[in-house]
Description:
Elements: H1 2-29, H2 47-50, E1 57-60, E2 66-68, E3 79-84, E4 87-95, E5 108-113, E6 115-116, E7 123-134, E8 148-156, E9 165-170, E10 177-185, E11 198-204, E12 226-227, E13 232-239, E14 242-248, E15 255-260, H3 274-279, E16 299-307, H4 331-336, E17 340-351, E18 357-358, H5 360-366
Antiparallel strand pairs: 1-2, 1-5, 3-4, 4-17, 5-16, 6-18, 7-13, 7-17, 8-9, 8-16, 9-10, 10-11, 10-12, 13-14, 14-15
Amino acid sequence: MNKKTIPSLTTLFTLGLLLTVNSCKEEAKQPVIAPVQEEVAPKPVYASDVIPFFEHWKLILGDGSNAGIATKFENKDFFYTANDSAGDWVVFKAPNGGDTHGTSNNTRTELAQTKKWYPKTANDKLTATLKVMNVSATGDARVAASHAVVVGQIHSADKHENEPLKIFYKKYPGQTKGSVFWHYEINTAGDDNSGRWDYSSAVWGNDFSVVGTEENSYPEEPKDGIALGEAFSYTIEVKEGIMNLTFTSEGHETKTFTKNLIASEYTTKADIPEQTQKLFVPIGQDGVERQAAYTGEGCFFKLGAYNQTNGKSPEVNKNWCSGAETHGGDIKKQYADGNYAEVWFKTGSISVSDAAVSNDGYFAKND
């Protein structure tokens, strides 16, 4: 009896062993499922990450609104960051037509300093490195402001709110190189500011007064100009009434200028320069400047894209009204066919003197 039982137990043991091995093989065949990894969205790069000085400014957008202190802020229509082989840039974009800030005819996406300082006691400084990526595709070539954008300013916060400094870039359609120039606007004597005018100084290329002979006829391209996408830098320093300007760009001659902001050189009609006689006097802008110029007026820096091309008829003002395409203020259409200004800033710095005071009054008047 025992002899018959032993083979049966052996058989059962063998079968059990085979089943166990097969079970292990089946388990080994089951695919190993890796845990699902959640995609992490890239961290946004804000303008204040690229140039950490935004606590000194309020941001005016291309729709005329005041966005305030633009730390950790972006607006995809007007103000954001971009990246290229040189790294991150802060983008300022403004259409030819739309809502404007204050009394201006022109749209802007621009920083305005939260403090103001007085030229006579000033020790204030602004630096920037930038490249202009686009200026308006349309505009009357006989109008000096057509195809131009202002990339840096000094603005008065008081009385007439005139501008002792505007830095321009201007390039005509079909040309490779554009011009960089700067303006001094007189601080008009008296209460009537309608006679104010600008005097333009060329940095690279031409000054403001070089215009086309017909609506779509352009002057010769400047040989020493700056191309779209070509970086340049400026330094503005105002100390004890004197404004010093320095402009640099790789491959171009460094240019420097000095202007007294507290003693005028334009106090009589005889002082009006020839450039102004040709450009502004014929349209009635023939004022004189107060003897003390900008003395006693609070001034402040601006930086960004202040588009100088607009849709107003040149019949209104042949220097400032471009008659450009605005598509009735439709921003998307303007951006689609190149009717806007776009400026990228790589670096910037600001030094504010202890004598500077709040500029809230300017924003209260103009927002």
